[in-house]
Amino acid sequence: MTRYAIIVFVLVTALCSMTAAQKVDRSALAEQVRAEFMHAWTGYKTHCWGHDDLKPLSRTCRDWYGETLLMTAVDSLDSLYMLGFKQEADITREYVVKNLSFDKSIEVQNFEITIRILGGLLSAYQMSNDKRLLDLADDLGRRLLPVFDSPTGMPYKYVDLKTGKTRDPISNPAETGTLLLEFGTLAKLTGKTVYYAKAKRALVETYKRRSAIGLVGTNINVETGEWTNTASHVSGEIDSYYEYLYKCWQLFGDGECRQMWDTSIAAINRYLADEIDGGLWYGHADMNTGSRTATTTGALDAFFPGLLVISGDIPRARRLQDSLYKMWQANGIEPEVYDYRASTVVHAGYPLRPEIVESTYYLYRTTGDPIYFAMGKQMWGDLVKYCRTDSAYAGLKSVVTKEKQDYMHSFLFAETFKYFYLLFADRKLIDTKRTTFTTEAHPIRRTWK
Ligand code: DMJ
Fold it and tell me: Domain locations in the chain?
């Protein structure tokens, strides 16, 4: 062998064994995620089967509205299928179909019920082909529809599932604009176009009220159409409004959504992006003047690198992810609100949120850069270290002290575990070209023309 051939041989062998090692690492981590998912799921089943959520420290249960809507069971169903727990998924599906009823006089929050339950039912229907799930989704959609009967077409926040009585006109873009993936899919699968039309109108009416410089505010009155809080950002109360502008184009090919996204992202990059010591962040600004009002970000904002990835802006996505990962590393887990200029924690809670994992998944899936695999591995270790309990998983009251909180949100199953699993597991698990994840990480496949 020539010297050159020897060098090539050594390099190729090293590369192959690196790839093999990474594969082993990946499948071992994916198995760990499955095991931890099952640990938390077993805790929920043991203590709170038939209820909405488990409170993991006291091992008691919470039903959001006094009566159960089987929140955790429905929100987890497609994850059970995706992570390969088919038998458990089938048992849960049967239980849901037999026991879930929306014929209750309870006033529910339209946004939360749409993203967790309507989205969960639709995705599980696509995975199982069980028409009874689609019937449940249709029944729920019909009961939620009165929310849109406001003078502007933007939805009220609450609706009584039995009477259709609505309340609370002060809403926000996330709640008026994060409905179209679920209602639109329901329209496509049932042929009832009213679902698409109402949710689309709510999104457009929100967009139409953007300021002259292209930003939306935090709170809006759905009766008058007036803003009641003009703070603009990509955090809670606005976040997923932007997500659905883009994803409505991705899932339905709706060109108007694409145009609304293009206009919005230009304004976001111009007025909300903030450069601090070479790092990229997105802060708060007044929607009318564009002037900076706060230098805060947080766990909810961490969905934004993922959205930048799918909409094609990898350079900004990478830079923002670097910043947000620093926020995670500052305390070994991310806080709800963080001042990036002062590098201080503003609200210290961590309720098991998925957003930064979601962004890590999209970055790794798209770039293949091992740096994102390493980030995910670190975050996974931190989640297990700080949030695991004997019975399940618990959020944190404080990422500084690591004191636990007696609550386990259903999005732990719907999103956090799912995105970790997708990051580590075999890439062929989903048809990425045809699948769009809702804001609650329920995968929807475009099965219609
Ligand atoms: C989820 O319910 C959804 O992702 C929503 O869009 C924002 N918050 C939680 C998770 O943090």
Answer: 24-67+295-449, 102-271
